[in-house]
Amino acid sequence: MCALCALCALCALCALCALCALCALCALCALCALCALCALCALCILRALRALCILRALYTLRALCAL
User: Fold this and answer.
1) pLDDT in tens, the chain (67 residues)
2) Which of 57, 48, 9 has the alpha carbon at shortest distance from 26?
3) 3-state secondary structure (DSSP) of residue 32
4) Quick one: 44 exposed, middle or buried, by C-beta within 10 A (0-12, 13-18, 19+)?
5) Are 4 and 44 in contact (CB under 8 A)?
């Protein structure tokens, strides 16, 4: 969960920011471009991508070990 996304609640323009609590949906924060605080939501996207990379590496390592 991305604590920074809580800042989006301060932006009256972005109704979608309520979804940021799930972080998987943070791509929707691109619609928050009118809100200066919502730029922080980009961190959620980076965090999710990093998590996916780590998971992919773990699955690859496990597959190699199974050989």
Assistant:
1) 345 555 555 454 454 455 454 444 455 555 554 454 455 555 555 666 666 666 777 778 777 787 7
2) 48
3) helix
4) buried
5) yes
Sign of the alpha-carbon torsion through 39, 45, 47, 49: negative
The domain spans of the chain are 37-67
Expressed in angstroms, the distance from the first to the final Cα of the chain is: 35
Under a CB-based contact definition with an 8 Å cutoff, are residues 2 and 41 in contact? Answer: yes
User: Number of H helices and number of E strands within the chain?
Assistant: 1, 0
The pTM of the full predicted model, rounded to 2 decimals, is 0.33
Arithmetic mean of pLDDT over the chain? 57
